[in-house]
Amino acid sequence: MGGGVVAEGDVHTYYEDGLWKNRVEGGRRASNTSPRRVDAVLAGRQIARKRRVGHFVHTPEGEVETERDFRPRVPRTDHGR
Predict the structure, then answer these.
(1) Which residues contact residue 15 at a Cβ distance below 8 angstroms, ignoring those fewer than 6 apart?
(2) How much is the average pLDDT of 8-12?
(3) Are 51 and 24 in contact (CB under 8 A)?
(4) Cα–Cα distance, 20 to 18 (Å, whole number)
(5) How would you list the strands of the sheet with 54-58, edge to edge?
(6) Residue 44 above 60 pLDDT?
(7) Which of 22, 45, 50, 57 places its Cα 20 to 30 Å from the Cα of 65?
(8) What angle do CA 7, 66, 34 make, to 5 degrees?
């Protein structure tokens, strides 16, 4: 196997140094980069969906603009309470 450590956190799409980037929480570097925001957002969404984690898209200023959750839904078991 590759021997690398796989980060298991949410995916963040953000702008830095003139590029849009995707990084998994816990990872040291961006998973991928793009000069176009739309391409980075789509790539980040695909990564999050595959990993079944959250995807946060940030504005160029760093604020969270949108959030999507791709975690599996857990059925409620409140038994009528």
Answers:
(1) 21, 37, 58, 59, 60
(2) 93
(3) yes
(4) 7
(5) 32-34, 19-24, 11-16, 54-58, 64-69
(6) yes
(7) 50
(8) 60
Indicate the helix (H) or strand (E) that contains 64. strand 64-69
Whether 75 has a pLDDT exceeding 50, the answer reads yes
Rounded CA gap, 66 and 58, in Å?
Answer: 7
**Which residue bears the tokens 């078991």?**
77
If pLDDT is split at 50, 70 and 90, which confidence band does 80 have? low
The pLDDT, as a whole number, for residue 79 is 66
10 vs 23: CA distance, rounded Å: 8
